[in-house]
């Protein structure tokens, strides 16, 4: 490969261009060649049109995006790039990094400046790089942008959703938009990230934990190791580790005693929740609820962390064949986590949606030992079709007892199950008419009082370790289930609680222990 071919290869590669021609100040303010760390390299080599990044703090993501903005501005004349952050101070810091990196470029590559003010670098080749604070006004409207970088998006505030939509419209057809941030509770960013993670929107999802950025903290690890030794008279040893720390050492390649020492002292200086938000080890522990959450968030996150990916049984591992009516949903809307047993009682919670793409119709199945064995979740299926699905699930699990919420489409489900499918093992409740005469009705009548009772029962059984949850979707809903200002309970705005309610009803059936043999 001759020099011309080498230059062409570098020119067409953001990674090679940055590492070949750009310099940055290191943490000691020494000017060094910009060698991308593993996180930066992975992001740049795998970025898509729309990118969303949840990360641990201070890993060097903003400087990598400054490098990308300069790359596009230099290699593609007449290109506009936009860099945004959540505060004026943060925006100013990013712009200063950008100007420093521009100033350190080789003269032969450095485009001449046409304009250099507090918010913009404009080059004589027609390209511009602008830096603004997101939230103050609509930025980017009317523009066609090659590259958009939004730093600390989770901290932008209420206007985040509206402004993001405007920015998406301004992106060029061959452009790139990157959102990167540490977590900040359960907000619009959390919702957007979860959808990206589940492949429910256009964004490509990236997560980088504090092991991925460990190379940026070597001096800090040494400092905290010294502090620990000053306090304890010796370094941390393997025999000093807690069970949680031992598990971290086992689960994460690159985890060392020095990092554990740093982590332990960081948590001691703040709290476990705060550390997990700033320096998450998994994306599940990063999101800490700032509201009045019903379930203990740390325990929920720990449960999610230990769930294996795709932990449901494969079709060929089921000991009992699924009817074709359930088979078509398996692995998409219907999951079985533990095989059916012929001598076991099953308790089945049923929450019904309208089948119009909003609230979900959900079924959660528990065995008599308190383990979740199956879950169904679908928001497209119509109530009359859903009754058939519930009937098949009930029969599959030993004609288990159905606890069906009567609200919404629940009346339709109950009527079809009872009178069309002749399903007899259904929980009943007592009520009294105006004359004081007792009546028994099928289903579960949800009121503010009864809802509080079954949710508190669910919470107690979960937090005392009397049940085992296998559905990650249920655990995710538990994270956003809160007590409202008026005292009611439900999902935060923009989220769902259908699996939480189905689980609570299944556990109410388990608690009552009623079982009709037919």
From TrEMBL:
Keyword Zinc-finger (UniProt): no
Residue stretches making up the Terminase large subunit gp17-like C-terminal domain: 348-508
Gene3D superfamilies in alphabetical order: 3.30.420.240, P-loop containing nucleotide triphosphate hydrolases
Keyword Nucleotidyltransferase attached: no
One Pfam family of this chain: Terminase_6C
Record keywords: Viral release from host cell
Protein name, as recorded: Terminase large subunit gp17-like C-terminal domain-containing protein
